[in-house]
Specification:
The protein has 231 residues and is of the alpha+beta class. The strands form three sheets. Strands 10-11-12-9-3-13 form a six-stranded mixed beta sheet. A five-stranded antiparallel beta sheet has the order 5-6-7-4-8, covered by helices on one side. β10 and β11 form a beta hairpin. α1 packs across α6 and α4 crosses α5. The longest helix has 15 residues. It is globular. The mean pLDDT is 95.
């Protein structure tokens, strides 16, 4: 039931439901996230993995904050700047190991960010490998006051407040799907971003929808996401 819209090189769901009730459908999706739980397909996000002993140093130079001292398992926001200090993109960096970072970029900017990273790596000659994994991973944002209950129904990863604080990441398995999970979100509500190899994407989506049915889980689209961010 998704109404699709072109975003860069991708088609994405703008909203779900009858085209005649567009405004009502979008309003309902916003309230769904504010009051219950919703899920957004964010597979088009850029996904870049940095590996090597200089991976943290590379991010220190490339983005606006410090990453070489970022604790393992922590997630940190990234603001990417050009040579004039202007912000050209934003994302997050999940430090998975001492020499390994999983970095996201926006849908429309990932090609530029990846190219810039490779160019800088040629100039700086740091000991780091840069891998564009955008097409290799599907990603879902599960968000809303009831998001934790949906994940608890699946088991596999402890998502309690104490075990999984804000701006931390975990790896594990959900419903038989290997996942990289980050507790982040741009909706202002409790959010978990789940990344899984693309061949598992549909299975993870279906498992979450089934586990979330008792809690009223429904998908929401890009327009609701924009409104949630603005709010």
């Amino acid at each position: 039931g998704a109404k699709m819209t072109p975003i860069g090189a991708w088609w994405r769901p703008l909203y779900y439901g009858d085209e005649r009730s567009r405004d009502a459908a979008i309003r309902d999706e916003v309230l769904l996230v504010r009051q219950g739980v919703g899920m957004l397909d964010v597979s088009t996000l850029g996904k870049i993995e940095l590996r090597g002993p200089d991976a943290g140093l590379f991010l220190d130079r490339f983005c606006s904050m410090s990453y070489s001292k970022q604790p393992l398992g922590k997630v940190r926001y990234c603001l990417t700047l050009n040579d004039m200090g202007t912000v050209i993109d934003d994302g997050v960096a999940f430090r998975m190991a001492a020499d390994r970072y999983y970095v996201t970029a926006t849908t429309g900017a990932v090609d530029r960010i990846y190219a810039d990273m490779c160019w800088r790596n040629v100039q700086w000659r740091l000991d780091v490998d840069i891998h564009n994994m955008t097409a290799g991973f599907a990603a879902l944002n599960l968000t809303g006051p009831l998001a934790r209950r949906v994940l608890e129904a699946l088991g596999g990863i402890d998502v309690s407040r104490e075990a999984f604080p804000f701006l931390e990441g975990r790896t594990g398995t959900l419903a038989g799907c290997p996942v990289r999970m980050m507790r982040i979100g741009y909706t202002g509500e409790l959010s978990f971003e789940l990344h899984t190899p693309q061949s598992y994407g549909e299975a993870l989506w279906n498992a979450l929808m089934q586990a979330g049915r008792p809690h009223g889980l429904q998908p929401y689209g890009l327009e609701a996401s924009r409104i949630l961010r603005l709010e």
